[in-house]
Each structure stands twice: as structure tokens, then as C-alpha cells.
Amino acid sequence: MTDTPETGTPTTADIQLIQRILPHRYPFLLVDRVVDIEGTTSATGIKNVTMNEPHFQGHFPGNPIMPGVTIIEAMAQTAAVMVGTTMGLVDGNMLIYFMGIDNTKFRRKVVPGDQLLMKVETTRGKPGGKVWRFKGVATVDGEMAAEAEFTAMMDLQG
Question: CB within 8 A of 8, min separation 6: which ones?
Fold first, then answer.
């Protein structure tokens, strides 16, 4: 974890920090690292796609392809880590709910061995607010795999 000198907020999140922010666990924790966290403005998530992920058993036997919905979920998890680190929600018992997914397009298959880079940016939301909107683009080797706009509600549990 690297901190911004002026604010002390993290600019990267390793898997240990991610697990302290997100409630997700195997097999649904879909981001391995978050880098380039710029406050609540933008961040980049990294997902190393491996053959031992459970969805590849059935999607599709002999031709494993990461489901598009899990790519969108990985982008949303990246956004939640960005907001969680910046707003000091580490160990905060936060749940995140999708409220909407719009303007989604899939452009390329994502397969085992790929490294998925997910760039997310906030289009609406502010510290203290519960409802946030993001735009995300997922790429592999510089080629767009998916893009989406999504709205989520951040819910801090007591």
C-alpha cells in the first residue's frame, strides 16, 4: 500500500487491504490489486484470470471464457475499493449493492492467462453520499474487453 504524501490516503490496495474493505470472498472476490487510486475520482483494478476459477467449469467446457457479468462485477469491486480506501472505510463493514447497469458493451473474450485492467471513474457521488455512479472500461493487452456505466449504493453496516 502506497500513501499520498499530502493526505495519507492509499494510492494502491493489495489483496489484504481489499479484503478489509470489500465483504466479498472466494469465489466472488474478483479484483487482485487496485492501483492509481486518485481520491474518489478514478482508479485501476487488476484481475489475473486463472483457469482454476469456478465459472470456467461451465462457461464453457473446453473453451473457458470469463462471463461478462463477472467482468462488470470486477469493475464495480474496483470502484468500491477506490471509494473505501479514500473515505477511510477500511474495516468499516460496508456492503455494496448494484442499482443499475447501463450502456454495457462486450468487445473481446477474456480467457485464462489474461490480465484484466479495469479503469473506473466516478461520474456522480460524493463523500458521505450513499449512491454513486461510475464508468468503467476493462482491457486486456490494451484491447477493450468491456465497458459499462453502473450505479451502486454503499451501505455501512452498524
Answer: none
Q: Could you say which DSSP state residue 3 is in? A: B
Mean pLDDT, rounded, of the chain: 94
3-class state of residue 24 by DSSP: coil
Catalytic residue among 59, 108, 119, 133: 59
pTM attached to this predicted model: 0.94
Bridge partners, residue 10, by sequence: 3
* CA 133/CA 153 separation, integer angstroms: 9
> What type of residue sits at position 142?
G
Known catalytic membership, residue 59: yes
pLDDT confidence tier of residue 156, bands split at 50, 70 and 90:
confident
